[in-house]
Amino acid sequence: MWAVRYRGLAAACLVLLADCSPVEVAACTEIGAPSGVNVTVEREVAKQVRSVILTICHQGDCQDHPVQLIPGSDSVDQGCTGSAPDEACSATAAPNGSKVGFVQVDLPSAKLKISAMVIRTGKPHTLSPIEVEAKATYPNGPNCPVGGNQTKITIGPEGLRT
Questions:
Q1: Which residues, 6+ apart, have CB-to-CB distance to 83 below 8 Å?
Q2: What is the rounded distance in angstroms from the CA atom of residue 139 to the CA atom of residue 28?
Q3: Which residues does 128 contact at the CB level (< 8 Å), separation at least 6?
Q4: N or C: which end of the chain has fewer CB within 10 A?
């Protein structure tokens, strides 16, 4: 009698258990994302730009930060070899004529005003300031600990832009 009464309940439980798939848990690594400003100097002006100093302002407090520039590059797909799950893919970096840099500086998650002094063949040229917003980064995805606050700017023929 007991078995007859609970047979339906037991069957329902088995169906529910069979439908459950394992919950995926995100793997969080120790990779970090420092706080700071990513800088790109477009190739149209990169040959003329010898150095850059950013002035970063937040709530009236302004600080100057030199930018260490290096040649920029694009990733070029080199294709894949083998077959899944042992497939190996690769890419190579190809210079693109730009210059890039990163100013590591503690940034609040807030709106900032950034201007730049660009040294072009020995002559300084101050670019008009722009307003940007620094935002938190998630180097391992949104389910892992937050990284530093970052923003990015571009220096092109018309000056600074986001």
A1: none
A2: 9
A3: 115, 159, 160
A4: N
pLDDT, tens digit (0-9, with 9 covering 90-100), for 84-126: 888 899 999 999 999 999 999 999 999 999 999 999 877 899 9
- Omega prior to 85 cis, within 30 of 0: yes
* Rounded distance between C-alpha atoms, residue 130 and residue 113, angstroms: 6
At the topology level, CATH places domain 26-161 in Immunoglobulin-like (2.60.40)
Annotate 93-114 with three-state secondary structure.
EEEEEEEEEEEECCCCCCEEEE
* This prediction's pTM: 0.77
Question: Taking a C-beta distance cutoff of 8 angstroms, is the pair 11, 19 a contact?
Answer: no
**Separation of alpha carbons 155 and 43, rounded Å:** 10
First to last CA, the chain: 74
Residue 28 is encoded by which pair of tokens? Answer: 């969080």
Residue 135: other Cβ atoms inside 10 A: 12
Mark out the alpha helices in the chain (DSSP H runs): 2-19, 43-46
